[in-house]
User: Fold this.
Amino acid sequence: MAGLNKQTASTQHNPFPRNWWVSGLWLVAAIYLVYSVNAMGLDWDRFTAGLGHADNLLSRMFPPNFSRWELLLEGLIESLEIAVISSVVGIFLSLFIGLLAARNFMPNWISTPVRGFIALCRSFHPVIIAILFVKSVGFGALAGILTLVIATIGFIAKLFAEAIEEISFKQVEAIRATGASFVSVILFAVMPQVFSRFIGFATYQFDSNLRNSTMVGIVGAGGLGGTLFSAFQRFDYDFVAAILITIIALILFWEFLSTLVRRIF
Amino acid sequence: MQKIDHHWQRFTLKQKLSRFTVYLFFIVALVLSVRTVEIIPEFFFDAPEQMVDLFSRMWPIDFAFYPISVHDAMIETLNIATLGTLFTLIFSIPLALMNASNIVASPWAHWIARFFLVSSRSVNSLVWALLFVAIFGPGVLAGVLAIAFRSVGFVGKLLSEALEEIDMGSVEALRATGAPWGAVMLKGYWPQVKPAFFSIVLFRWDINVRESAVLGLVGAGGIGVVLNDSMNLFQWQQVAMSLLAIFAVVVAAEVVVVNIRKRLI
Assistant:
């Protein structure tokens, strides 16, 4: 007992020591916040003035106006078409591009340029790619499809290449030992190992293409986005609300379907 | 001698049927889309020529344009992305806590949190920007809020998943000592989700840098405004300069994030 009482406060070990790195990081974030709010001229007056407008906007948005449902349906179907075609084409191309980019199957002189191409596809936002395609193929669904094909390649091909790089080589060797051709090795040794992950990537990418297909229309590449943008420009906020509700419903419905698909595979 | 008459099958009949349904569903969707989508074939075959034309107009890149307006707009874009990422924490941390089943047990809270998280993700950042431009007028404030609202769903969902995966041992130990709720949060949950938290925030920042580059197309500040102006004036050499600047910043942001994440994990 005497030993316990002798212990002073200075020798006690604090079980929760302060992490100076993290504290420093929060400090830097706080300083940055003050600096950037000042530098960009964000002030409270503008914010509160805006809240009044928000009230006005919301009262004009509700109740949503579904009376022009033909226009809405037309845009919705075009968005769906863009999403389906671009996902199928993009995923199909990504299968080959991903394989070409896998470093354990391809020599460096093939995989490095292919990886560069994938990185290039990923580095621009779909909207910027959509602008370039609208210039080159004109307004309409085709520009949207091409844009989302590029976006799909940038995402799926990269993940697919990584999935192939992580596979176990035992099965590949076993299939090779039977004298199988390269195509058979891919079909019977590689695909079974990556297929379920691949379905996961594909459903995720379809989800993302569905969201983006409702957006590329803002720059003229077809789909519901064009309808939305023109409704905004004509201040038809009740129609805007109807379009937004449709988009959210569409995506919720797909989330429900995609959980079903994932349960099957 | 007993004859082995059943042969091995990888999937049960039910699995086969459900997989077949999914395939059939997708093929029908694809065929319907391809048959009804409006594509003008002349435009498609004309595309390579138009692309070459576009790139020849972009060359040589107008580097003198950089100090005039690209530099300031690029700094503004980075500020929008960073401020948006910081503001999103105000909404996404409470929603993540509400959505994590090991923190709040009520299913009502989960549904409310999930509703906000899903609607934040379903509405694209450009659409958020359109809404906020309508409320607060064109400018940086609309961009920051669009980025913040769009990121809530992403950060909140991933953070709540990280929270649900933690080891409850230390939380229970803290509760057993009678620690108040705040202390359990700070010393039980927080140390375990800290690496995931920083990695999610950095990842979202990287995405936000890309997204904030295009917000200007609808008037929400940043490099997009400059890009849109030069495009409306058909100054393709200035467009090329803006695109190059976006590309450089996006690549730099990704390199920074990858390096920090490597040290975190």
Summary: The radius of gyration of chain A is 27 Å. Residues 211 and 248 of chain A are 9 Å apart (CA to CA). Chain A touches chain B through 61 residues (CB under 8 Å). Chain A is about 80% helix and 0% strand.
